[in-house]
Design brief:
113 residues; flat
Length: 113
């Protein structure tokens, strides 16, 4: 009976990275590069891979694999400086006439980009 309930061998290589290592990658991607002493404005997958090895979190990892792991989690730290902490929008002061207030635009650090 236990033979029938046992898991069959599966094709492919076993997982290379633990869930904890992947979580540490996500945490690193969420932190500004300056916190790791990197002189860059935003993370790229090769920079993240290099930093993971430098910190001793993994023995080796490619930038391509980092890109795949970030894509699986739908993290895109390279696309926008506000991807993790969106800016707070300020609405213009209300006008006495509704027609005037609808013509005013939002003000914020990322408007019009």
């Amino acid at each position: 009976m236990s033979e029938r309930l046992a898991d069959a061998p599966r094709p492919g290589a076993p997982a290379t990275f633990t869930l904890e290592q992947i979580t540490q990658l996500y945490a690193l991607a969420c932190a500004p590069p300056e916190h790791s002493g990197r002189p860059i404005s935003h993370w790229t997958p090769p920079e993240l891979a290099d930093q993971l090895v430098k910190q001793g979190l993994v023995a080796r990892i490619s930038g391509r694999h980092v890109r795949r792991l970030l894509a699986e989690a739908e993290l895109k730290p390279h696309q926008s400086p506000y991807w993790l902490h969106p800016p707070t929008w300020t609405l213009p002061p209300k006008s006495k006439t509704s027609a005037r207030s609808t013509n005013k635009r939002l003000r914020g650090p990322n408007v019009g980009r």
